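seq/struct pair 1
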Amino acid sequence: MNRRSRPAAAALSLAVAIVALGGCAAAVPVQSSGDPVGTWGTVADRSAYLVIEPDGKMLGNDSCNGFSGAWEQAEPSAPIVFHDTVMSLMMCEGTNAWLTSGRSAIVDGDVIYVLDDEGEVLGTLPRE
């Protein structure tokens, strides 16, 4: 192999590796499968968690700001939709406040996928 073809070969190898690894990534479920009621994440200082209560209320913390609101689910396989959410607005350095941007969620067994307005995954939390 000559010197000019080495960068091209390296780029091709990298592209193949990325495609191969992309196929191994876990797919986000399309439907909920599991009961959303419970605690997701670890309830602790500077920790993101979400508590979904059976009466349609929810509360949590994004590792800095607390929030609460309501949730509903049209049917057991439908996404959970959050509404009437209120939150504190403290500034905390070094935190990633992704959870308070959640507008819906999909339960997959013991993991909840929190989604934004566009249905993109913001993050996941394990069932506690």
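seq/struct pair 2
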Amino acid sequence: MQNVNREALIAELQKRKTKSEKPKFVFDEFCFNKQVNFLRGPGSRFRNAVCSRRAGKTVGIAADMIDSALSNEEVNLLYITITQQQARAIIWSDLVKIIEEYELECKTDNVRLTITFPNKSKIYIAGAKDRTEIEKFRGWKLMKCYIDECQSFRSYLKELINDIIIPALRDKRGQLFLTGTPGPVKAGIFFEYSQSKNWEGHHWTAFDNPHMHLPPALDLEEILKEERIIRGIDESDPSYIRETYGKWVEDKDALVFKFNKAKNIYNKLPTEGEWNYIIGIDIGYNDSDAIAVIGYNTHHKKVYLVDEHVKNKQNISQLVAVINEYKDVYNPIRMVMDAGALGKKIQEELRMRHGLNIEAADKTRKVEFIELLNDDLRTEKFKAFKSSLFEEDCMLVQWDKDSKIRNPERPKISDTYHSDICDAVLYAWRECRHYLSEKPKAQPKEGSDAYMKELEMKEARECEERKKDPYAFELEKLYEQDMEELDNIMDEQ
């Protein structure tokens, strides 16, 4: 009996010892200096970090969220990037890894991407692709908010920050952290804030991340050298500088669409001539439905983006209502839609059930037609209204740099940022015939010197034609008379 009690006692002591040896999560020990200084250093409540790839900013944010939730009761911490799907790929695995490694007591919801702790503190992981999505955060009460990959947000980022997040931080005098990598142009809200004296700025790269320097398995310099050789670039490549050193370097060649604010924005539309409108439609559900209305005038060899609509998670009835609204306003000569994959079924549904005569968009030779559209942009033959979503997205959609090096004739568009409105514009623009437009020649006033001179020239031409072939000349005259009489009859009817 004594032996049994002794063995049980030893087992219990061993169990308690093992439990006491469970690793403890300590933020300052988990993160390196640059991460700690950005997330915990003294200074402003409003901070931004411009970093390179693999700098460790996302892991630092994950650690800060968990530590803040563990250390404070009933607080909310919010992480936002472009879409929830991207948020899942970027940070969710880092959060789960820390929880599992340190055996932290909490409840994770892998569908809603939330983490709830016993002290009622909660972590939320979310996306905000457009203005409609930022409304879901209105009225929240937050201790901290982190907005990641800020270089990929449109101008609504300012509205998200000023009108929604900053008021949500008031109760707790909370903090706001903006993070991202430099984009290909020195423009946009993230660039503006990164240069602002009102925001506390931070900067670090993968060279500051000790986890990227673990020889012999990891030698960052050697890895980067291999990458430059494979990609066929040197250290002066703008994309390489942005991604590796986190520096703002202009690289407009990286952009797919060559939109220029000085050339491609109109203040008012031409009033003379007749208008033809074409509607381009790009459909999605997780991605947005996008509708672009393109117009061209019979007097001008130019194309104008006159209207646009972008909304995600619409059902068929909602999409039909919007299409019908634009159809009633613009009376388009054609409507074209992306009918690839599931889009074919939706196109047929719109045609058969809703009576919308929508054709399948021509999607062949996409790269070639992008270049033709770019030529219209360069020569000021394509114009859009000010602050259009198309204009904003043109500053975000980039070529896959490596594919462009491997196959310059057929490069691929990078999946870093997908634009639904740019696709819709391209579908509609391909159907435009603006190059056939011609302003009618002004007719001289009857009785003027110019009128008499033109009459004399016409008589001289007719005299020459009569001399060459009298029979053909008389037939042409009779035909012109018949056509004139027919026009008069039609006018009377």
